[in-house]
TrEMBL record:
Transmembrane segments: 31-52, 64-84, 156-183, 251-274, 286-311
Species the sequence originates in: Hamadaea flava
SUPFAM superfamilies on file: ABC transporter transmembrane region, P-loop containing nucleoside triphosphate hydrolases
Annotated InterPro entries: AAA+_ATPase, ABC1_TM_dom, ABC1_TM_sf, ABC_transporter-like_ATP-bd, ABC_transporter-like_CS, P-loop_NTPase, Type_1_exporter
Keyword terms: ATP-binding, Membrane, Nucleotide-binding, Transmembrane, Transmembrane helix
PROSITE patterns the UniProt entry points to: ABC_TM1F (PS50929), ABC_TRANSPORTER_1 (PS00211), ABC_TRANSPORTER_2 (PS50893)
UniProt name for this protein: ABC transporter ATP-binding protein
Pfam families: ABC_tran
Topological relation to the membrane, as annotated: Multi-pass membrane protein
Gene Ontology molecular function: ATP binding
Domain ABC transporter: 346-596
Length: 607
């Protein structure tokens, strides 16, 4: 992979143009207009100056006053156009960047699966795509700057051709190598950006670790600051080495190209002086010639730079185009099959799964039925594949082999969003959002009214804690952000942090908000709760689960014993399946785990 996106330049250009036009049609038009004015003024000024000089040299002073007024008017127009252009350019930039970012993150969150987030190449591409969010806006600027230079170039070139056509051709021809070399450099720069992507991402990762509270405790206790800084700087050095090499190459090329330009301009000046001395051209012509050569060269420079910049911006924007047009990461049926309420149950038929072709099998032929209206508890050692099975049920990944059937329908035939609407879940690694307490519960169902949010908090046993917070449910659950400034102008309230168990109850409240769904998934819902809270939570969950289809994962076997069925996962397969008394009587792994855990409690009690 060269790092140059596969999305073609034309496709990227069309997409960027469409984005900009839809984001800011009036501003683009205005910017175009002031650019035209800006482009015309230098040529007008050059002709006016020539007229003034010729008038002075020839002693014709009659029209000089009017010429001076014309110079002032054109100068004012040029200055105004510059300021208006700056404003319009910035606005086009802002609007287009917002649209591009929206499009990018809509595409990223639309992807139904998780595999892309575990693919380093995708993450590198996503980072470059994020960096290119401003490129469509910049492209307008670049294109207009190219158009402006093209107009200026045409004006100066015509003026130069009037005086010396052959020399005009030489100046233009001398720019051809620059174009070819700069295009090549552009491709190399984009490839370099791709190559240093992993180092840049790692550098950002180390910086993030040091700058956020998540790792602050361990960094201080283990004294990791120096280690992480060292790693960060090493990555930065790697990236800088590549950048420096590129910059040096560019410097050498630019210096050579500048040398060619200077030589051409110098030769022109010699010719003009000789021609003026011979009387073939006048003083005004010399001034015009010198201005025209400088004008042509500088316009050509800008034109070439703009073209090359546009090329580079489009190449990088190609990463955005690839991300937003990547399609689904799992085969998705659209429209999927209608999904009536669950009646019979969910069945895993010979399900095999591994996270990648080069990774070990996690599930190896799991056969399991989750009957409608029953709770199945899933137990097994760490790494047995319990959470993986849950991820397959939510269709974050597809089984590598085998099928999962919802009332007999393969879940691959159902649109993932429809399937997920039917599921409530507390994941083992649930997210503590840096949002308010109310929002942290409402993420379980964004349509929920405040009274439902409060009821869910009551069900999860967290209402009294939340209502006692400084601003109740409106309190930010973060020390890194403040809530919105208060309307009365008071300082915004600082947020608070919850304890681990309190967060877990909050995550439970999210699931309670979805308690009407067909399938309830509880992956270690009570591991951080104190014994009273755990007891209460399981009483509530038991009531909630009654008559519902659910899957409960827990290492606290006391919490799973009253499940309708207990399934033990071992070596990627179902090794035991039955009720608590049956599995105890079997005397196999479950009985051993249960007896060992129970013994711990019994010993303490008898002691
Ligand atoms: N995203 C992933 N990519 C690669 N391997 C993974 C991924 N997630 C989990 N695994 C691997 O899959 C195996 C099963 O993990 P899983 O989280 O399903 O186990 P578990 O039974 O839930 O364990 P625990 O009881 O510790 O929560 C583990 O060996 C783990 O390393």
């Amino acid at each position: 992979m060269t790092g140059v996106p596969r999305a073609g330049l034309l496709r990227s250009a069309a997409r960027a143009a469409g984005t900009v036009w839809r984001a800011a049609p009036f501003h683009v038009t205005g910017y175009l207009a002031v650019t035209l004015v800006g482009a015309a003024t230098p040529v007008a000024l050059a002709w006016l100056t020539k007229a003034v000089l010729d008038g002075v040299a020839g002693g014709h002073t009659d029209g000089l006053l009017w010429l001076a007024v014309a110079v002032a008017v054109v100068g004012t127009a040029a200055a105004t156009a510059t300021h208006a252009g700056q404003y319009l350019r910035a606005e086009v930039d802002r609007r287009a960047a917002m649209r591009t970012k929206d499009e990018l993150f809509a595409a990223v969150s639309r992807a139904p699966g998780l595999a892309r987030f575990e693919n380093p190449a995708f993450l590198d591409r996503l980072r470059l795509a994020q960096q290119s969010a401003r490129n469509p806006g910049r492209l307008v600027d670049t294109a207009l700057s190219a158009a402006r230079s093209a107009l200026t170039l045409a004006g100066f070139l015509a003026s130069l051709a009037v005086i010396n056509a052959a020399f005009a051709a030489i100046v233009v021809a001398s720019a051809v190598p620059a174009v070819l070399i700069e295009l090549r450099l552009s491709r190399q720069r984009v490839t370099m950006m791709w190559r240093i992507g992993p180092a840049e991402r790692r550098e950002m990762f180390y910086a993030h670790l040091m700058a956020t509270v998540d790792a602050a405790k361990e960094i201080r206790l283990f004294d990791l600051g120096g280690f992480l800084r060292g790693r960060m700087l090493a990555e930065l050095r790697t990236a800088n080495r590549e950048r420096r090499r590129m910059d040096r190459r560019e410097f050498a090329v630019q210096a050579s190209l500048a040398g060619i330009s200077a030589a051409v301009a110098g030769a022109g000046l010699v010719w003009a002086i000789v021609a003026a001395a011979d009387g073939r051209i006048g003083v005004g012509d010399v001034s015009m010639f010198v201005a025209a050569v400088a004008g042509v060269q500088s316009a050509l420079n800008v034109l070439v730079s703009a073209g090359v910049m546009a090329y580079e911006q489009l190449l990088v924007f190609g990463h955005h185009v690839e991300v937003v047009t990547a399609g689904d990461d799992l085969p998705v049926a659209r429209p999927g099959r209608a999904l009536p309420p669950l009646r019979r149950g969910i069945e895993l038929r010979d399900v095999w799964f591994r996270y990648g072709p080069d990774l070990p099998w996690v599930l190896q032929g799991v056969n399991l039925v989750l009957p409608h209206g029953q709770t199945v508890a899933l137990v097994g050692h760490n790494g047995a594949g319990k959470s993986t099975l849950v991820k397959l049920l939510c269709r974050f990944y597809d089984p590598t082999r085998g099928t999962i059937r919802w009332d007999g329908v393969d879940i691959r035939e159902i649109a993932p969003e429809e399937l997920r609407k039917r599921i409530a879940a507390v994941f083992q690694d649930f997210v503590a959002y840096e949002l308010t307490a109310a929002e942290n519960i409402a993420v379980g169902d964004l349509t929920a009214e405040p009274d439902r949010v409060e009821q869910a908090a009551r069900d999860a046993g967290i209402h009294s804690v939340l209502s006692a917070l400084p601003t109740g449910y409106a309190t930010m659950l973060s020390r890194g952000f403040t809530a919105e400034p208060a309307e009365d102008g008071d300082d915004p309230a600082t947020g608070v942090l919850l304890s681990g168990g309190q967060w877990q109850r909050l995550a439970l409240a999210r699931a309670f908000l979805r308690q009407d769904r067909d399938l309830m998934i509880l992956d270690e819902p009570s591991s951080g709760l104190d014994p009273d809270a755990e007891y209460e939570a399981h009483q509530r969950l038991r009531r909630l689960r009654a008559g519902r289809t659910g899957i409960l994962i827990s290492h606290r076997l006391g919490a799973v014993r009253d499940a309708d069925r207990i399934v033990v996962l071992a070596d990627g397969r179902v090794s035991e399946d039955g009720t608590h008394p049956v599995l105890l009587a079997n005397g196999a792994a479950y009985a051993r785990l249960f007896t060992r855990q129970a013994a711990g409690y019994r010993d303490e009690v008898s002691a």
